[in-house]
Amino acid sequence: MMPSPGPAQPPPVHHTIRRGRPPAPISPLAGPSHRAWLEPARSVLFTSGLTLDDLVDRSGYSKTRISELMRGNGNYPQWEITFSVTRALGLPTQPLRRLWTAAAREAHKDDDWIRRSIRQVAYEGEGPPLPYQAFTEAVEGAYTDYARAFLLTDRRARWVVSQAFDILWVRWDEAAASANLYRYAWSLFRSRVMLRASRRSDGHPDLRAAVFSTRAVHGHPGDPGHLVDLTELIDLFDAINRLSDDQMDLAVLQYLYGMPSEHIAHLLGITPALARAVDHHARATVEALLNVPNPE
User: Fold this and answer.
1) Angle 74-77-81 from CA coordinates, rounded to 5°
2) Is there a contact between 192 and 198 (Cβ–Cβ < 8 Å)?
3) DSSP state string for 3-41
4) What's the pLDDT score for residue 218?
5) What is the pLDDT of residue 22?
């Protein structure tokens, strides 16, 4: 077993004007869960100014193996080398291990292989920063609702929210230093939802199945006019599919979940005035789309 590195922090990653040479492109064989931890690791390596030779000195692994890991080439890496390299980059262990585990399953590694690999590293890592914890607790409910609209089940929605939060933890220093934390976090989270969302033939996300979770449907399922209402709702959500990103996000949160517009603006990282303008344009666009027969 690898000896415990103990609670000592890794050598600090100094952000300088000089940047390291970007690694070669990620292998096209690396799946979305693999990229979830590999992309932020590569970003930190590039912006830190460190080189692969620096990682060799800090991690103890050969340049060839580190280069292969940073490109997502070859066999999926064991946790021991992944931990050593990402620890050398100053990245948090707990979220990275969860992201690594999800990607191992995506790479068809069985649970025994995953457990054996994790046991090679006797280090659990530090807990989350308090500001990160407060932020994620504040937005978790709304994020889960939004994800459920596209992914349809609580289990899938919560899994994607959890993955997005782990990526946010890995990138927390960058997120906290950004001009707009809420905008940064929403963009990251939204990209994970859209990666898993069903798509229409025209490439737009498909919201039509979300109709069946609306209050309008559950409020009067036995009403004679229910079938007409259902058809109208499907048409409505079909139109919402075609809105721009901010317009669609606002429509989903406001009309599917009844979220107040001020809260939506805060969640999306936009001003209340901009949220009102987005809502106005969304309404006008939806009305125009609903008045066009057979929009496809």
Assistant:
1) 130
2) no
3) PP--SPPPPP----SS-PPPPPPPPTT--HHHHHHHHHH
4) 43
5) 62
Grouped pLDDT means (10 residues each) for the chain, 296 residues: 44 47 81 95 89 90 93 94 94 96 96 96 91 97 94 93 97 95 97 90 78 52 45 78 90 87 94 92 86 60
Give the count of alpha carbons within 13 A of 95, CB side only.
25
For residue 211, the model assigns a pLDDT of 67
Alpha-carbon span 255 to 45, nearest angstrom:
42
**Please, is 163 exposed, middle or buried when counting C-beta atoms within 10 Å of its C-beta (0-12, 13-18, 19+)?**
buried
How far CA 188 is from CA of 8, 47, 112, in Å, comes to 30, 19, 31
| Per-residue tokens: 228 | 């007409």
Residue 137 CB contacts under 8 Å (≥ 6 apart), including other chains? none
Return the sign of the alpha-carbon dihedral for residues 20, 22, 27, 28.
positive
Positive or negative torsion for Cα 6, 7, 8, 10:
positive
Q: What is the pLDDT of residue 167?
A: 97
Q: Could you give the C-alpha distances from 169 to 121, 136, 272, in angstroms and in order?
A: 21, 10, 27
Q: How far is CA 196 from CA 142, 160, 175, 256, in A?
A: 18, 8, 23, 20
